[in-house]
Amino acid sequence: MLKFRSQLQIKWDDHPAIMVVGVVDGTSEAIFQTLMSLGPSRSEWDFCFYKGSVVEHLDGHTDIVLKQLYSDWLPWGMKRRDLLLRRYWRREDDGTYGAGYVISPVTEGKHSVVKL
């Protein structure tokens, strides 16, 4: 079971930040697959997700992902963002998953140096 809760932080580097927590019934594997999905079904629960793709599989537990966000959910005047993520995960002996990611913005029309 995965638990979610929502909270709007007033300020985070002068931009609003959102944290969501809720409850989802399902196996660890099914929930993990849902969270890792970058297809159209992701927008059913990730309201700021526009589209995404895996750029490179680094190993069995690490990917480089390009993710685009809808601009509707960003602060006024902020353009749509492309994010380059290094996401990683592990499956524990008890069947649960641990995961995380590192985010680097992609600059439009310019070369980005991404430290991974």
Automatic annotation (TrEMBL):
Please identify the protein, giving its name as recorded: START domain-containing protein
Alphabetical list of InterPro entries matching this protein: EDR2-like, START-like_dom_sf, START_lipid-bd_dom
User: Which residue range or ranges hold the START domain?
Assistant: 22-116
Q: Name one Pfam family in it.
A: START
Molecular-function annotations in GO: lipid binding
